[in-house]
Design brief:
The radius of gyration is 22 Å and the shape is elongated. It has 2 domains: 7-22 and 264-377, Lyase, Ornithine Decarboxylase, Chain A, domain 1; 28-262, Alanine racemase (TIM Barrel, Alpha-Beta Barrel), CATH 3.20.20.10. Helices cover 29% and strands 24% of the residues. α5 (99-107) crosses α6 (118-127) and α8 runs parallel beside α9. It has helices at 7-16, 27-40, 56-64, 74-82, 99-107, 118-127, 156-168, 190-206, 231-246, 259-262, and strands at 22-25, 45-49, 68-71, 90-92, 112-115, 132-136, 144-146, 172-177, 182-184, 213-215, 252-255, 266-276, 285-289, 307-309, 316-322, 331-341, 349-352, 374-377. The chain has 10 helices and 18 strands. The structure holds pyridoxal-5'-phosphate. Pyridoxal-5'-phosphate binds next to α10.
């Protein structure tokens, strides 16, 4: 259960002893993940989903590798441009956009927008005339730790009429997008959506509209406690489905990885503030840390990070892990079994591995006076 820290991050902690709570991100691991995914899907054009970790250091690193960006707001668009991204390599991918932000992004040179209903399409057509639009369809999200289906995407059978409407309204219908859900543990999940997209491509072709882009979204997994298939398996499955349906008429493939690029590159460290053995009558030890739900670890318990500690004992005892705030929801792991050395003591560190995604911007502003995570990009 006590996992090992990535080496460069381990050295950083021992050399600099940074104050906790903090997040340390190793840019070498981001680069490694980037290369693995690009080798796996070599023909795909990659747009990093900024929300997973919008640190300017991360954005700038990805700009250097020629990666594009998938954004949700004008602030994210601006962040990418400020970091050196070309606006025409930015997708405004949120299906719920403020009209004024669409217009501003368009003025800044963003040309690709995503919609999933007539209301959003009309806004885009008015605020960004002649822009390129992708219609997001709802995909089967089973197998994902974080499904996205209820909130986003239209039924596949509505995409055809929406894309025809797009053309009538003066924007350019360029393709289909979907997302199979975040931390998608089942590589076969891409099949149904690829098939649905293929049918839409066919129907529109019959109506004289040739779509050229299929955006197969994110969902590629990080290495949490439950094992997931190798990224190559995802690649093989996805390539297989694309060939099965599109055959020789392959569209341009876009991918929007978020979690996969940054999660495994980050470690969150917290310090033990209090240990109590007398709380819940289950015999479990409660370990209170200086980081918790309000300080980046919002995704627990569904996300089960691998953990490590500076306690050296080999005898492990079951623990409940809790944050420092006065909110009773601030419990990191209570339902999920976790174990730490029995000689863990005040001032020891507890590390959460693969915590580089969906953590830093999930920290609250200043709840209970606790400051957001400090961050180090090495
Ligand atoms: C969040 C998001 C992604 C990234 O998803 P991951 O599961 O982190 O890879 C990609 N595309 C869109 C539209 C998103 O909202």
């Amino acid at each position: 259960m006590n996992a090992d820290l990535p080496l460069r991050i381990k050295s950083f902690f021992s050399d600099f002893q940074p104050q906790t709570p903090c997040l340390v991100v190793d840019s070498d691991i981001i680069e490694k993940r980037l290369r693995q995914l690009c080798n796996t899907l070599p023909f795909a054009e990659c747009f990093y989903s900024v929300k997973a970790n919008p640190a300017p250091e991360v954005i700038a690193q990805l700009v250097r590798f020629g990666i594009g960006f998938e954004t949700a707001s004008l602030n994210e668009v601006q962040l990418c441009i400020d970091s050196g991204a070309m606006p025409d390599k930015i997708i405004f991918g949120n299906t719920v956009k403020r009209k004024a932000e669409i217009a501003d992004a368009y003025k800044k040179g963003v040309t690709t927008f995503v919609f999933d209903c007539i209301g959003e399409l009309e806004k885009i057509a008015q605020a960004a005339p002649e822009s390129h639009v992708l219609c997001r369809i709802a995909a089967d999200n089973s197998g994902a730790v974080w499904p996205l289906t209820r909130k986003f995407g239209c039924a596949a059978e509505h995409a055809e009429s929406l894309l025809i409407k797009a053309k009538e309204l003066g924007v350019v219908p360029v393709g289909i997008s979907f997302h199979v859900g975040s931390q998608q543990c089942e590589p076969k999940s891409w099949e149904n959506a690829i098939y649905d997209a293929y049918r839409i491509f066919q129907k529109l072709s019959e109506r004289g509209i040739e779509l050229k882009i299929l955006d197969i979204g994110g969902g590629f997994p990080a290495q949490y406690r439950n094992s997931v298939p190798e990224i190559e398996v995802y690649g093989e499955c996805i390539i297989g489905f694309l060939q099965k349906y599109f055959g020789g008429a392959m569209p341009n493939i876009f991918i929007e990885p978020g979690r996969y690029f940054v999660a495994d590159a980050g470690v969150i460290a917290g310090e033990v503030l209090l240990i109590r053995d007398d709380i819940d009558g289950t015999g479990r030890r409660w370990v209170f840390l200086d980081t918790g739900k309000f300080n980046g670890l919002q995704e627990t318990e569904r996300t089960q990070y691998r953990i490590a500690s500076s306690g050296v004992g080999s005898h492990l005892v079951p623990v409940v892990l809790a944050g420092p705030t006065c909110d009773s929801d601030d419990i990191i792991y209570e339902k999920t079994p976790y174990f730490l050395p029995d000689n863990l003591t005040l001032g020891d560190k507890v590390f959460f591995l693969s915590a580089g995604a969906y953590t830093r911007t999930y920290a609250t502003v200043n709840f209970n006076g606790f400051v957001p995570l400090k961050e180090y990009y090495i």
